[in-house]
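Entry for the shared binder. Reason: the reviewer on the internal report wants the predicted structure included alongside the sequence.
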Amino acid sequence: MLLAGTTMGTVAEELITLNNEAVKNSTIFSYIGKYKTGARDDERGQYVDLDYSIWLYRLLTPLLLTFILPSLFVLLIYFSISICYVFKLHRRFILQVYNDGDFNGWDVARTILSVLWDAHGWIFHGYEVCGLENLPETGPALIIYYHGAIPIDMYYLVARIYLKRSRLIYTVGDRFLEKLPGWKLMGRIMKVSPGSIQSCSSVLKEGNLLSIAPGGVYEAQFGDNNYELLWRRRIGFAKVAIESKAPIIPMFTENLREGFRSVGFAQSLFIRLYNAVRFPVRPVYGGFPVKFRTHLGQPIPYDPTLTPEQLQEKVAYAVERLINKHQRIPGSILHGLKDRFVSRPDKRD
């Protein structure tokens, strides 16, 4: 019995020793170099349970992803820009291969970019276009659309129309884009430029498609999931339509604010900062794979009796009707994800 007790005591001591060694070497505990009360100098330290670290990691990962995903959108843009530069360097060789005097080397670049963006829209957002019959196959048309936090829907629409109709939609972009590295070439190939009333009217008079977001960067930065138009008193697009006598196509993309959103805090501070620098300053997060469905409304024909202010109100009303009919308000990211799998019936006018 004494021998048995001694043996059991020895085994217990060995288990305690092994357990202490396991604690010292385990990844479940981390030494952070703080002193323990009453411990010797060689024993001073503090061990923190890694369960807390795992909990913190799981808590912060979704938050980090919401800001990392938009960077993937930026990477896709710069990948597109790199394609443009490749064709710029080798366009002479491309022209020799095709050996066609009427061939435009940039058409190949536009086709590749359109395939890239159309595939991205289809895979990542199940992108669809409704009301495509409202967009003329020939002749001019002015597309007026709601500006999301990131106008990714216009990238998708440009790609889809170029592939299906072989027509390039000219786009009016903010002047700050020209300050981005590499953007000038991209803008020249895809016909994105700030534009003036005269230049935009000329584009339409030449029989092209042109898109304008009257809300611009202000609407992109300070709009929210209530989808209110922030056009303020901008009537430039109405003057363009009147001067060119082109029909206007109202446009809205469903769940646009659920894909990308601006942060919801310190809005007054960001507004003051934006008015001072005229540059996007409000952080954007998201990249959520919600359902995107672009709706093209009935054309608004040229009416010589309307003033620019009256035409602006008429177009704003048409865009708001599209929003009220097709968009869940306030928008919901979870419901936007659900729309990928379950079709939601439109609301009645």
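Summary line for the report: The first strand starts at residue 29 and ends at 31.
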